[in-house]
Write a structure and sequence with these properties.
TIM Barrel, about 425 residues, alpha/beta, homodimer
Chain lengths: ~425, ~425
């Protein structure tokens, strides 16, 4: 499927009602500028200059550390951004499930790390057929329990692929998410994998350090260190047993918050075999005004040497809405709701405003979104707020994943908010 | 566009990977049964028997009260459900914005109540063109401020429709959402509308009682009563001024929680003109296991005479996921995340489980979802939990709107979980 040929019209939220259909490649030729009021609001936009900066940051980080990246595609589910990441040197793309993987395949992604357990008969049947059909398709998934290996083996045996399925043994920590909790448990799973070499091939060790519970940064970071210590123990023990497939051992971890720690910790795992270290950070490319920005500040505290590596990540994703009513003193109602923005970590944050025909956008301080309904937001205003009905407000977000999935199309804008293109998501 | 001809394949979350494309009308002929493990999980299903029951409930309520219904389409954004509601006698469909309205028009909806302010140049231009093009298109939107009327008039004048735009004057309450807060403010807006009869036509009065703040049910219900008192005052005053368009005066309110109160209150508003009362409840058709179920219990406490009217609403929407890991005592990780289910009111609630090949589904008690990531759920288990890796768990939800928008396709299932069809959403 040629993405750039896809027909765009007002079926897509963010495209003006009544727009005649056009090919995605021509989106920048519609003559639209957000600040002129050409787009219906709410609108989600990606600032191209920020994407460029963030792309440059990750290239510099990978060059300095010598690591590989399989960015988690679930963040955006946007093949255009995946291809940008691959052009930047990404090794593959990470998926959360087989639904993601089928989408990636449709858009030409040849290496997929499914950072999750593969369980069900239809999912296994598809993977088995796809690795049999295409010798260049390089696919990995996780195993973390004997029951899970049993299911996978049963379904694989029925599907009879022409080559073994690559798996990564997942380790985890008590109170965390998935993953074997101890060296003993992990080795039992590895032994089960090694016992069916016709069906499974043990490619490496995986963990996810991004969701460990803890009372503060230091406590969480201590648990992360323990997790990587377990990863090292398990990797060395599996290597001693000779259970890894031939070739480099894959070590993979690294979400969007602690990837500096993950990189350092995995580089310190000493194996006799060559090692390939794969990070999976997904949110670096868009960054944000909240969660990712706070994580970045903490990253710089932990790893101050990274500050000078390249220009820092900047928020690329913005949401714009109209003030539709100012019914009470100190309150505006805006056309932005839970259908348009993630609210799982913080509510969107007003950062700028603009009046059509005026000189904006201008910075907006002391305004705060205090609630959202499905299609409305409640904005708390200072006494001297400039906002009137019909004014536009720009919101930053916190956690790109839960905002991307509210939009099938996001406009790419230049720094003057001229629409220069668009990207499609496939949730 | 013929919806039933639309091509379905594994681009849609919920369709097995590798499924050959088929027309939507043939979804029931794929031979799938959820309990046999034929669908990839997570899956969202609608139980047809519950939709039938809920449809019957609302038909009975409208027949008893003599009211009209324009169900809020934002709940599901599902034209197949809209057409079911219209076949059940709905007067029109409610929209939140022009993006919704263009979707409704594409699928043949001729009467749209946009329960929101219409603000922007491109949105007004589309409405003006559409009411000019199609004399049978009956469209309404809200006005609640002089600034809003000014914007609307300016854009309408530029767009030059061949007939005036119908508006409803919105009244609201301090601390609520949109809506003029007093008789005086409302009359000023009505006067502004009446002053441009070539462009605007005042069709009635609107309010939304569903989001008033209050410390408990009684406090909220007292404020709702005040809101409807204001609606009555304004309606009578506007009628005295002669500012309504000829014909019946529309009175519209009624979300999914307090529609019994809205119905009673609007029926008690005495006008000299004939009145048409339009409720906008959107969630009755699917109901749920949480928010809507609690609202229903409270509705029966307020309006006990409704208990015997028809069989009570039942939850029609369910989410199913696999147990993918049981890494810690008392904990299972399931394949259901924030990408799959609304979490804005409550997390999804496990209600049943099934083992493929077993005799389920069986009721599940004492299990609780205690957290969700984007693609995972954390299930807390009792010591004697039957759940193993690979088992299926059925979740009820709380607030249909924020779950529908996670799915472009939901399977329709019979009581034995045979897939008998599918419905598409257009978010």
């Amino acid at each position: 499927m040629m993405l750039e040929d896809m027909e765009i019209d007002d079926r897509f939220k963010g495209i003006p009602a009544g727009t005649a259909p056009f090919a995605l490649r021509d989106m920048g030729r519609q003559g639209w500028n957000l600040l002129a009021g050409d787009l219906p609001l709410p609108a989600a936009v990606l600032r191209r200059s920020a994407l460029d900066a963030n792309s440059g940051w990750m290239r510099a980080f990978l060059a300095q550390t010598g690591l590989s990246l399989a960015p988690h595609g679930k963040t955006s589910m946007c093949p255009q951004l995946f291809h940008r990441q691959l052009a930047d040197g990404a090794w593959g793309v990470t998926a959360a499930n087989i639904g993601h993987a089928t989408t990636y395949r449709r858009f030409g992604i040849n290496r997929i790390l499914m950072a999750n357990q593969l369980l069900s008969r239809p999912d296994v049947a598809w993977v088995a057929a796809e690795i049999s059909r295409d010798p260049d398709f390089d696919f990995y998934c996780l195993v973390d329990s004997l029951d899970g290996v049993d299911l996978l083996v049963r379904h694989l045996r029925a599907a009879a692929p022409t080559r073994p399925l690559n798996v990564l043994l997942e380790v985890g920590q008590s109170g965390g998410r998935t993953g074997a909790r101890s060296l003993e448990d992990a080795l039992a799973v590895a032994a089960a994998v090694a016992s069916v070499p016709d069906l499974l091939s043990l490619a490496g060790i995986e963990c996810y350090e991004g969701i460990l519970p803890g009372s503060d940064d230091a406590a969480i970071e201590a648990r992360i260190a323990e997790l990587f210590a377990l990863m090292g123990q398990v990797a060395r023990a599996v290597e001693m047993k000779g259970w890894f497939r031939p070739g480099p051992v894959l070590l993979s971890a690294g979400g969007s918050i602690y990837y500096d720690m993950a990189a350092d910790a995995m580089r310190a795992i000493g194996l006799s075999s060559p090692v390939q270290i794969v990070l999976r950070s997904g949110c670096y490319l868009t960054h944000d005004h909240g969660w990712a920005q706070r994580a970045w500040q903490r990253l710089l505290e932990r790893s101050p040497h990274l500050a000078g590596l390249a220009p820092a990540p900047r928020p690329a994703i913005e949401l714009w809405a109209y003030v539709q009513s100012r019914p009470d003193p100190g309150r505006a109602i805006v056309t932005l709701g839970k259908r348009d923005a993630g609210t799982d970590i913080d509510l969107p944050m007003p950062v700028a405003w603009h009046r059509i025909g005026g000189a904006g956008p201008l910075l907006l301080t002391d305004h705060r979104l205090i609630g959202m309904n499905d299609q409305h937001g409640y904005l708390s205003l200072p006494d001297d707020s400039p906002l009137r009905v019909g004014d536009m407000v720009c919101f930053g977000i916190s956690h790109p994943c839960t905002t991307f999935d509210k939009w099938r199309l996001l406009s790419l804008v230049e720094d003057d908010y001229r629409v220069s293109g668009g990207v499609l998501t496939f949730f």
